[in-house]
Amino acid sequence: MPDEGQQAKFDYAGYFRRIRELERLAVSADEISWREKYEKPERQVDVLLYLGCNVLITGHLAVEVVAVFKHLGIDFEAIGGPQFCCGIVHHSQGDTDAANRLSESTVAKMESYGAKTMVMWCPSCDLQFEEVVIPTVAQDFAPTITHATEFLARRADQLPFQKPVKSKLAVHTHVGHPRQERDAAAALSLLKAVPGVEIVGTISSDRLGYHCPTPSSAEAVAVFREERAHMLDEAKAMGADTVVTLYHSCHREWCDAHTPELRIRNYISIVAESLGCDTEDRFTKLRNSNDPDAVLDASRAQWQSHGWEPDAARKVTQSYFPFGGTQYGTNHG
C-alpha cells in the first residue's frame, strides 16, 4: 500500500498491454499494415506516418488511414505502437527522465527513415512533440511535422475518389486550441472534396479540451455526457445523419451513441469509403455489446489470427467487456 497521500505508481505495463490486447480483438494480423516493431529501415522514405499508440484500440482507423495514404501513391512508411511511444504517458505522471528517454529513442527511430515530412495522426502525440519533445530533447528534429487532416486536405485533388458517400455530416470539432482549430479546418476542407457529402454544420464544446478523453472521474464523466448530449441534439436539429469525429479518442468516446438514425464515424472512414478502402468498425460493434461471450465470438477471426487460444481470448474479453469507466483508454489519446 502506498503511504498516506502518496499516489500508487502508474501501471505502465498494464496501460500498453491493454492497447495491444484490444487491438488484437479488432484487427487481424494480416490487416496490420504499419510497423509495430522497429528494425533499421532498408531504405529512406519521403513521408513518415506516425500513428502513435492509443489509436490501435480503434484499430480500423489505423487500417483505413494507411490505406488512404497508399491511394496517394506517395513514398511513405507507417509506424505505431508502444515501441514508438512519444512519452506523453510517462510525462503526465511526472516521470520526466523516463519520458525523455522514450522520446529520444522514438525520435532516433523516426529520423532513421530519412523522411522530410512526418504526419501525425494522434492529437496527444502532436501536443507532446510541439510542447515537450521538440523544445527539450529534439530541437534539431529533421522532418517537418504536420497533422493527417492537413496533409490529406492539401492533397485532396490527388485522391481517386470512386463513389459518393451520401451523408449529411455534423462534424465534431474542438475549439480554443489553435492546433485543433487547424485540424478542424483541414478536415472540413477534405470532407467537402468527398463526392456525395453534405456538411450541415459543426458541433463543439469549450469544456472538453483538445480532444475527448476517457473521463477520469465521476465529475468528468458527468460533464462529458452533458456536453455530448447537447452536441448530439444539435446534430439532430441540423438534420445530420452522421456525426463525424476528427480524433480516434473522440470516436472511442462517442461510438456508444451510434444508432441507425445517427451514425458515429471518423473522418478517415468517410474518405476511405469513397476510395473503396474502408473497413468494418469492429470497435463500435464490440464496444456496444453487453455480452462478453458475444464479443468473444464476434472477434474470433481476429484473436485467432494472433495465435490466441480460446481461454486466453475469453479472459481478455471478460476483462474489458461490457465497456465502462476507464477500462479501455486513458486521458492520453
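the 2nd protein, sequnce then structure:
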Amino acid sequence: MPNQRRASIFSLVFFLLSLALAVGVGELYVRMRGHFDADGTFYFRDKPVRPYALPVAQAKRLIDQYNANPNGFMMYDPQLGWTNRPRACTDDHLYCVNAYGLRSNDDYTAAMRPGTYRVIWTGDSFMFGFNAGLEDSPARQVERLLKERGKNAEVLDFAVGGYGFDQAYLRYARDAARFDASVVVQGLQMENLTRDVTLFRIVAFPGTGIPFAKPRFLLRNGALQLIDDPTPAPEDVVKTLRNFDRWPLAHYELYYGSKYQRRWFAPSKLICTLVDGFVAKKEAADAARTASALGPYGESTNVTVALLERYRDEVTRSGKPFFLVYLPLQDTITSVMNGQPDPWQAHLKRLSGFNIIDPTPRLVAYAKQHGVGSLFNGHYSPAGYRLVAEAVADALAPAQN
C-alpha cells in the first residue's frame, strides 16, 4: 500500500511537472511568435488578443504634441472637453477662428446692430465646414444666401469638430447664449448619437486626434444629469486612461466593453490566445449592447432627444425659434436614391416635435446627376455644403418670387 501511494504521488507530481513544462513551452512559443504594440495589446499572428489595452501611448503622444504647441488650433476646455482656441489657425490655415473661437475673419459684439438678422450656428465638424475653405463653409454660404434674400445677415459659427449634441448644447448655453440672435440652428448628424454615450473619444475611436475626455449626460427618471464635469485636465489624461478600470466613471463609457476587461489569467498570453478563440459570445454580447444603446429607443437616443428638447426649450423661452438641420450621410442618400427609406427614419420619428430642415431631396437630386461621391469629401464637398445652405436659407428666409 505505501508503495502504491508513493507511485500515485510520483505520477501526480510527474503529471504536474509535465503540465507546467508544456504550459511554459507553450507560453514561450506564443510570446516568441507574437508581439506587443506600444500600448501593451498582444498580437499573435498579427491578430490582437484580448484583453486589449486602451490607446494610452497614442493619448500620450497627442498630449505631448498639445503641450508642445501652446498656440495649436484645439484647446482643452474643462466644461466642454475641448474647443477652438481663440484667434488660432490650423497649420495649413484652412481653418481660422476669431476671438470667440468662431470660424470667421470678423469679430462680433454680443449685442446685434439694429436691422441685423443673426443666426447662431452650432454643432460638429459638418456645421463647422471641415474639408472646405471659409467661403465654402455652410455658415458662410447661409449668410451669403440670406443677404441675397434681403436679410442683413450674420451667421455666428459656434461649431467645433468632434462635438456630440451634448457638447454643442453646453457650448450654446455657456458661450453662444450671451450673443443676441434672431434664430438658433443646430446640426443633426445622426451618427453623433454615439458621441453622447462616450466619455473619452479615444476609447470609442482610437484613431482620433483628440485625446481629451468630454462631459456626458445621463437620463435618470426623466431628468438629465451631467457627469465628468469638469473633465480631466491634460496632465491627468494619460493617468486616467492607464487606470481606466479604476476610474469611477468608466462604466458610463459605452465602448469600454469586455474586450478591455482583464481576467485573472491575463498575464499568460498562451491562455489569453486560447481563450480568445472562444469569445464569439462575448463579442456578440458587446455588439448587442452597443446596438441596443444606439437604437431608436436606446440610451443614446433617449439621452439625445431629452437633451435636444432642453436645448430647444431654452432657446424658445428666450424668444428665438430653434431649428435642427438634418445632415444626411452617404447611407441615407444612397437609400433614398434606391427608393428605400432613410436608415435613420425610426430615430428621426423621435424628433417629430422639432422644426427640422431637411436638405435630403436637394442632395438626392444632385447625386442622381453627379453621383453620390460628388457630395462628399471626407465631410461634405463644397457642393454638398451649398445644398445644405440653400435648404437652410429657404427655411429661414424664402427666396422672393
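DSSP finds 14 helices and 14 strands in the chain. The first strand starts at residue 34 and ends at 36.
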